[in-house]
Amino acid sequence: MTPTALLRYGFRPFVLLGAVGSAALIAVWVPWFLGLVSLQMELPPVSWHAHEMLFGVVPGILGGLLLTATPRWAGRPPVAGWLPAALVVVWIMGRLGVVGSEALGPLGTALLNVLFPVALTIVTGREIVAARNWCDLKMLGLLGILVGAQSLFHWELWRFGQSTHGTRLAVATSVTLIMLIGGRIIPNLARSLPEVRVVTRRPTPFSRFDRGATGLGMLALAAWTLRDDAVLDARLTGALLLIAGLAQAARILRWRPHRRLTDPLALVLHIAYGFIPVGFLLAAWAALAGSPAHGGAALHAWTVGAIGGMMPAMMARVPPDHAGRPLTAFWPFAAISLAVIVAAGTLIAAVLDPQRTMQLMPLSGILWAVAFLMFGIVTARRQHAGLNVRHR
């Protein structure tokens, strides 16, 4: 695959970099966390792990999705050429900046890393304004919040030695993006399946109920982000999280997931989205019962289960949709997402049962690393095959 072909669609470089980078990060993180290796870096292990996943991998793959999908939603050609190449360079500079954080110092590391989300926000905004697609301005707002979350992360790290609210704000923003984007893509995909077209009871389209459930989720996430005994009462936060979790669970039921058994990607998308209400309910338990373990489990349900589980399946749908190939079932991507989902369940079990951490956490890490490495390989082979077909 030539560099020009690689940059023809935004998802190509970012999916490959995000997949391989995610596998490498976890391969380093697990032995580092367990004390088997030691690395010299300005960021402590937990902060490094959170930063690179939330502000490295997730924005990178999100960038690939937005660079391809946003112009299409607006009826414009996908962003290609030097612009995605420049964004790739900026993304790589951020990752190298974290590795060299000891030499750069806190301010230099922060400035180098915040460049990518700022640039992605500007490019996405340009597409929205050029197409006058004002309904997508909410995406700009969420990207702006992600920039603020990363800035807050670095400030808290410099001021307190760890980040709490910056990390939570990034997780809340990512979950909100899934509720907005995934909440539209999953039922639309389900309604497009051949076996669904002939049945009477099809998945319920996006409605006021979805808007209400998403609004409740955003309100509960805001309370969770600001959670502080001096600001918000734990019972109020727990109640909001509980109601939001039940609303998201009801939202999934309205999509009739039991009818998606014949399409592997649709099925794993429903399962991965299911970690959204699971995360809300675990966070509610943590707030109401004062259980830090359930709080950690909620965090991993949202990040590993929902975000990680949905990334391969959603990106598997982007290339055929935007490169002119038919929309068919892709078992390799479904298997990859399923492996990530199992990794999420294993990690949640490790958090809730610390005595089994030494057994369950390496297993979860291996599943994640192998899944995302295979994601990168399958994506590269698929793109290369598509280019060969197109050039014949």
TrEMBL record:
One Pfam match: NnrS
The keyword Cytoplasm is annotated on this UniProt entry: no
Keywords recorded for this protein, A-Z: Membrane, Plasmid, Transmembrane, Transmembrane helix
Membrane-traversing stretches: 14-34, 46-67, 79-98, 104-125, 137-155, 167-187, 208-226, 232-253, 265-287, 299-318, 330-352, 358-380
InterPro entries in the record: NnrS (IPR010266)
This protein's name: NnrS family protein
Lineage: Bacteria, Pseudomonadati, Pseudomonadota, Alphaproteobacteria, Rhodospirillales
